[in-house]
Amino acid sequence: MRALLVVNPAATTTSARTRDVLIHALASEMKLDVVTTEYRGHARDLGRQAAQSKDIEMVVALGGDGTVNEVVNGLLHEGPSPGLPGLAVVPGGSTNVFARALGLPNDPVEATGALLDALRTGSERTVGLGLAAGTPDSEDEAVPARWFTFCAGYGFDAGVVGRVEQQRERGKRSTHALYVRQVVRQFLDEPRRRHGAITLERPGEDPVADLVLSIVGNTAPWTYLGNRPLYASPQASFDTGLDLLGLSKLSTPAVTRYATQLLTSSPERGPHGKHALSLHDLTDFTLHSKVRLPFQMDGDHLGLRTSVTFTGVRRALRVIV
């Protein structure tokens, strides 16, 4: 087997020495081409080249969720196809939601061992993914459709992601404490806590207006706080369409209630209440806003949008796991 290993040298939980050990372990079992990413979008370009190659059978992403997202978008540049290389993931970021949702160990060495075991036994699965595109209007430029592996957000949570990225650009380390601080700051600065600007539209259904927060999930858990899994949409699955959690109120009492529910969430129950909207197994829907709001996919802030259209695509990509 010939494989391409895409390495993010800035992965927060792996050292150069650890990466060398992982590379040698993988190279002992396959013909391995190793490429280190050099710029934002490089992993996407490498995934696209692998998809167009005639002899690469697998792409291994060594990095965090952002690296995985880029590789996936490269592999699926021309859409899902049975002949595409399989995807394997070795977690190297601070959270690694996609890898952990697949059942992989969060430790990169242990995950490499699990990957080698999967290759020896031929263990793999085909997962569903989300596809999202910004709709152009008088202010937005057309945004190409982009795949996401585990979540997208429009509004409040995307604002938090944007704040975290700003802090990282200033040299701050990506930690869970950093995320918590930015959640508090986003809440304090949020001008539409009581009357949201987001409207959900689905084919054949009445619109749902005035949402402040909208989290689109492709799997559960939604994310992790340290080793604690958080379930925004407990029913979300790689085997179904997309799930949506929407909140129509973020007053101080409401935030306290929903934050507590999120911290104590489980595979059986997530946030709930009269201001919470939970929808399961959606295929096509659109989120509109009266004002331009932040948008994120797989923890990557993608700027401001007035409208985003989502599609749940079943059996989109083969994953070695």
Low-confidence stretches: none
Distance between the termini: 16 Å
Q: Structural class from helices and strands?
A: alpha+beta
CATH architecture of the largest domain: Sandwich
Give me the CATH fold name of the largest domain. Answer: Tumour Suppressor Smad4
Number of domains: 2
Helix content: 25-40%
Largest sheet: 10 strands, antiparallel
Shape: globular
Work out the helix count: 8
Could you name the CATH class of the largest domain? Mainly Beta
> Helix and strand succession?
EHEHEHEHHEEEHHEEEEEEHEEE
Radius of gyration equals 19 Å
Q: What's the count of strands?
A: 16
- Percent strand equals 25-35%
Look at the structure and give the mean pLDDT: 92
Entry summary:
The chain contains 8 helices and 16 strands.
Describe what this molecule looks like in 3D.
Helix 1 packs parallel to helix 5 and helix 2 (42-52) runs parallel beside helix 3. Strands 5, 6, 7, 8, 9, 10, 13, 14, 15 and 16 form a ten-stranded antiparallel β-sheet that branches. The chain folds into two domains: 2-122, Rossmann fold; 130-315, Tumour Suppressor Smad4. It is globular, with a radius of gyration of 19 Å. By secondary structure, the protein is an alpha+beta fold. The longest helix is centred in the middle third of the chain and has 14 residues, at 108-121. The chain is 29% helix and 34% strand.
